[in-house]
TrEMBL record:
Recorded superkingdom: Bacteria
Pfam families membership: MOSC
Residue span(s) of domain MOSC: 18-168
PANTHER family: METAL-SULFUR CLUSTER BIOSYNTHESIS PROTEINS YUAD-RELATED, MOSC DOMAIN-CONTAINING PROTEIN
Gene3D superfamilies associated with the record: PK beta-barrel domain-like
InterPro entries: MoCF_Sase_C (IPR005302), MOSC_domain (IPR052716), Pyrv_Knase-like_insert_dom_sf (IPR011037)
Full protein name: MOSC domain-containing protein
Organism: Ramlibacter albus
GO terms of molecular function: catalytic activity; molybdenum ion binding; pyridoxal phosphate binding
SUPFAM superfamilies in the cross-refs: PK beta-barrel domain-like (SSF50800)
Amino acid sequence: MQPRVIAVHRSGSHSFTKYAEEAVTLVPGLGVQGDAHSGETVKHRSRVARDPSQPNLRQVHLIHAELFDELVEKGFAVFPGDLGENVTTRGIDLLALAEGTILRLGTDARVRVTGLRNPCSQLDRFLPGLMAAVLDRDAQGQLVRKAGVMGVVLSGGEVRPGSPISVEIPPAPHRPLAPV
């Protein structure tokens, strides 16, 4: 199955969830037009409090729809946009991508993956137990963060549900994703 965008979201305020849109526009070096997290420097409140001059490595948040499938099976009524992502994907293992992977969303937009979303306690305020449900352990006992990936916009364009996704793997050596 060709990887696809299944939903797009944005919010002009720092709300936990984002609202479904027919399309969003990605702006190079900024993020999702009209989204509270758009900008060259950090917009996440806790990061702004520490150092507002840091580069914004979290311009676009992507989550795989397969996570929502897993959460619903565990009894959590959680659906695209509920966890604050801008782009919900299907058919691509976002968590297995290397740092620096470029995702082409639709015909023009390109996002460079910068790292993992580090789940926070807001998840439990949204639904008790959700934070633990988006964390796991691999065979070696290492923590696995399943709440999606973050990226920066390299080239802009419109992204809408149904847009195809293509993957450009960076040159070796590949670095695994770490929280950003």
